[in-house]
């Protein structure tokens, strides 16, 4: 058999040369500081004006792989409150939003992104001493037998009509009172 020659279509043009590799292929974070980026986006973040091109009313949940560019991650954080911007605001799908949130939290844990700790004011009523359970211990009363230390510990006999009502409700369950006389 004769050796097989690869099939080549005849064309009058030379095959197009592949595009030159991007100078930002290895270091994508340098693109965010480049003049090319500022001409394209200006002062807006990357996601500004972004609308995913998809078929139908529901956007697909698969997008590109998440990148680990800290300056890019910083664009998805609100500069005023430090909150991660919601996908309805940025246009990112929920799957990538979860990965983005995870990457931002990881970058904050490693100290690569700033982290704003929220200020929580302590409620005043939790630390007041204007109620009876908090304050100075009262002086000991005259320690007569049968007197309580605090006045609210003293036994108070319930009203007779309340006792009669309870006895009437639970008469089938009460034991008969034994006569104290022998």
Automatic annotation (TrEMBL):
GO MF annotations in UniProt: structural constituent of ribosome
SUPFAM superfamilies per UniProt: Ribosomal protein S18
Keyword entries, A-Z: Mitochondrion, Phosphoprotein, Ribonucleoprotein, Ribosomal protein, Transit peptide
Keyword Mitochondrion in record: yes
Cellular compartments per GO CC: mitochondrion; ribonucleoprotein complex; ribosome
InterPro entries: MRPS18B, Ribosomal_bS18, Ribosomal_bS18_sf
GO terms for biological process, alphabetical: mitochondrial translation
Alphabetical list of Pfam families matching this protein: Ribosomal_S18
Subcellular location, record wording: Mitochondrion
Keyword Magnesium: no
Protein name: Small ribosomal subunit protein mS40
Species for this entry: Eubucco bourcierii
Gene name tied to this protein: Mrps18b
């Amino acid at each position: 058999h004769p050796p097989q020659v690869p099939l080549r279509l005849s064309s009058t043009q030379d095959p197009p040369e592949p595009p030159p590799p991007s100078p930002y292929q290895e270091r994508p974070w340098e693109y965010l500081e480049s003049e090319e980026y500022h001409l394209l986006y200006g002062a807006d973040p990357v996601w500004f004006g972004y609308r995913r091109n998809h078929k139908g009313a529901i956007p697909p949940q698969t997008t590109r792989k998440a990148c680990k560019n800290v300056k890019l991650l910083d664009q998805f954080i609100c500069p005023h409150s430090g909150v991660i911007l919601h996908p309805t605001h940025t246009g990112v799908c929920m799957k990538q939003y979860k990965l983005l949130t995870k990457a931002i939290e990881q970058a904050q844990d490693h100290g690569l992104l700033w982290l704003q700790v929220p200020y929580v004011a302590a409620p005043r009523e939790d630390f007041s001493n204007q109620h009876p359970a908090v304050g100075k211990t009262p002086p000991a009363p005259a320690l007569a037998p049968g007197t309580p230390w605090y006045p609210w510990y003293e036994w108070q006999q319930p009203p007779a009509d309340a006792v009669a009502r309870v006895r009437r409700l639970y008469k089938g369950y009460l034991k008969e009172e034994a006569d104290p006389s022998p």
